[in-house]
Specification:
The chain is mainly beta. Helices cover 3% and strands 40% of the residues. The strands form 13 sheets. It has a six-stranded antiparallel beta sheet with strand order 19-24-21-22-23-20, with no helix packed on it. Strands 33, 37, 38, 39 and 41 form a five-stranded antiparallel beta sheet that branches. It has a four-stranded antiparallel beta sheet with strand order 9-10-11-14, with no helix packed on it.
């Protein structure tokens, strides 16, 4: 039976044929752009779908029909409209399917231009030169930073400046010159002087103005990149400190385990586990069950959601088997793999580079108190105004940044603003109920070659500062054991308020700092032990003896707790003892 089709205008059509309805093409649902028809039941009782446009006109006999359908090749069916193209066709086949790690190479895509609507960021044509190779002997590329019309490339052992849309030529008269070349997306790599890199710690990078800061763990150095090149700022009085601390940073992934207690019963399937608390547990941690007799059973279940205050969600679910429960559940542990970090950022409020060396991730240390945690991390800052490291801090962030003159740090997905004037909350980092201790350690050494007797101590600033300790320089016979090394020390000096008391005769007195001419002053009372041949010692001696003294100021526990306490200046009155 023939079918007659009337065609309007001058459209072009393609005539295609389906031989039988049970063709695999139909069953796979691969009709090109044509809708499915309702289903019908075959003679064998199976459910099938009608092919599109059964031209024989017999719905009942569609199973045995020979079907034709038409596909229009002109867009919208208009006269002389664009023809429907076949689309992109691969013109080459790359049979090399092996993985290739090019850690020291840069690859760039096609152009993006929002004015003309060109978006080729997903185009990586192998017919064009889109790869820029750095020297592999300098290690992998860890960090890229775009600055003006240049790209700074941080490798493990080297720092380069990559020219964008230009090359560098060298002349005999003027040295290096930049040559514009629009066909060059990434020009040649120009190295900065010095064998420094960023090791494997791109998180240590921070930028302010034209200065860039970063850590080179492999060379025990903290570095600054500015207009005069690379400078080792860790050598400003802190070379030994960073040498020792950076040596403890581990680049490798290490299994970190957090143990909890829980009650699991048989027979039960668990999708959530209730714990006393979820401190130290994060998404991706692997579940392990410790049974009294069956040992530790590590499951394939992992934490899949941010833990709540007492609940963790795991997937897949864990079923307690009878063979595992011969005894009680001793504990539940969640293990994850972490590596040590060197987080850093720039504090625009104080104009300081702040860096946090974290030997243990904060997520692992969250169960420990502040004193225990501080042995696993060190957070400190560098001040450009004095070219020195000014402060240690008692907070352990996981991200550091500044925005519009405000300094922020992040932990557990929460953001905290520092230096916010919100009442009595100073030194209460990350919502702590009690403030952390703020202290300042000073060295009094006015005349290095003179043996001195330090008699008094004074400071200018706010009320609430006390002296925790005063130690003199060590003295003794050279090349002899430590038993002959002596060191003077003093009693602690209480703050102005805490040192106040009423004498037996009703007179108010001060056992610590007192105010005199708008300064807080106090006597230094010696509490050192007797030395061989020493006639006067201990509290009978006024002050401490030595070439210099080390003094530690700290805030007290009762004066304006959480408020502002500034320390402007500190000094000591001394007399020369001998030359």
């Amino acid at each position: 039976m023939s079918t007659e089709l009337k065609v309007k205008y001058y459209n072009s059509f393609v005539l295609r044929k389906i031989v039988e309805v049970e063709d695999p093409v139909i069953q796979d649902g691969s009709w090109p752009g044509l809708p499915w028809n309702p289903t019908f039941i075959t003679s064998e009782g199976s459910v099938k779908e009608y092919p599109p446009y059964p031209w024989n006109g017999s719905v009942a006999g569609a199973e045995e029909s020979v079907n034709w359908y038409l596909e229009e090749s002109r867009i919208r069916g208009g006269f002389n409209n664009h023809i429907v193209e076949l689309g992109v066709r691969a013109y080459t086949v790359n049979k090399n399917t092996k993985k290739s790690n090019r850690e020291s190479s840069l690859i760039f895509s096609g152009l993006y231009n929002d004015r003309t609507g060109i978006i080729n960021t997903n185009v990586f044509s192998i017919s064009e030169n889109i790869i820029k190779d750095a020297d592999s002997m300098h290690g992998s590329i860890q960090k890229l930073f775009a600055e003006d019309t240049n790209l700074i490339v941080f490798q493990e052992n080297k720092v380069h400046k990559a020219l964008i849309n230009k090359n560098t030529i060298y002349t005999g008269e003027q040295g290096a010159e930049e040559l514009t070349g629009k066909s060059k997306v990434i020009g040649q790599l120009v190295p900065y002087l010095g064998e420094y890199g960023i090791s494997r710690n791109p998180e240590s990078f921070a930028m302010y103005g034209y200065r860039k800061y970063f850590a080179d763990k492999d060379r025990s150095a903290i570095l600054r990149l500015s207009r005069d090149g690379i400078t080792e700022i860790s050598s400003y009085g802190m070379r030994k400190y960073f040498r020792d601390q950076l040596a403890t940073i581990n680049d490798n992934l290490v299994r970190r385990e957090v143990s909890k207690t829980a009650t699991l019963t048989f027979p039960t399937t668990y999708t959530t586990i209730t714990l006393p608390d979820v401190n130290g547990i994060e998404i991706g941690a692997i579940l392990a069950i410790q049974y009294a007799t069956a040992g530790v059973i590590t499951t394939s279940s992992v934490v899949t959601a941010i833990p709540s205050s007492t609940t963790v969600t795991i997937s897949p679910s864990y079923t307690v088997l009878d063979s595992n429960t011969v005894g009680i559940v001793e504990g539940v542990s969640f293990a994850t793999k972490k590596r040590d970090k060197i987080y850093a950022g720039f504090d625009t409020h104080n104009k300081n580079y702040t860096i946090s060396l974290q030997e243990e991730p904060r997520i692992v240390l969250s169960e420990l108190d502040q004193v225990e945690r501080e042995q696993y991390f060190n957070t400190l800052s560098f001040d450009e105004n004095i070219n020195g490291w000014t402060s240690f801090y008692s907070y352990q962030p996981i991200f550091i940044n500044s925005l519009k003159n405000k300094f922020y740090t992040f932990i557990k997905g929460e953001i905290y603003e520092h230096y916010a004037d919100i009442g009595l909350n100073h030194c209460k980092f990350y919502g702590r109920a009690t403030p952390d201790e703020a202290n300042v350690q000073l060295v009094f050494n006015p005349n290095p070659s003179v043996k001195k007797n330090f008699n008094t101590i004074s400071y200018e600033g706010d009320n609430g500062w006390e002296v925790e300790s005063i130690y003199s320089s060590k003295q003794g016979i050279d090349n002899v054991g430590s038993s002959t090394i002596y060191q003077d020390s003093s009693n602690p000096i209480k703050s102005y308020d805490e040192g106040a008391y009423i004498d037996w005769d009703g007179v108010s007195k001060r056992a610590g700092f007192d105010r005199k001419e708008n300064r807080y002053v106090a006597n230094i009372v010696n509490n050192s032990g007797v030395r061989p041949g020493e006639v006067i010692f201990g509290s009978s001696v006024s002050g401490v003896k030595g070439y210099f003294t080390t003094v530690k100021f700290k805030i007290d526990d009762s004066t304006n707790v959480g408020g502002v306490k500034e320390l402007f200046l500190a000094g000591s009155n001394y007399v020369a003892s001998s030359y």
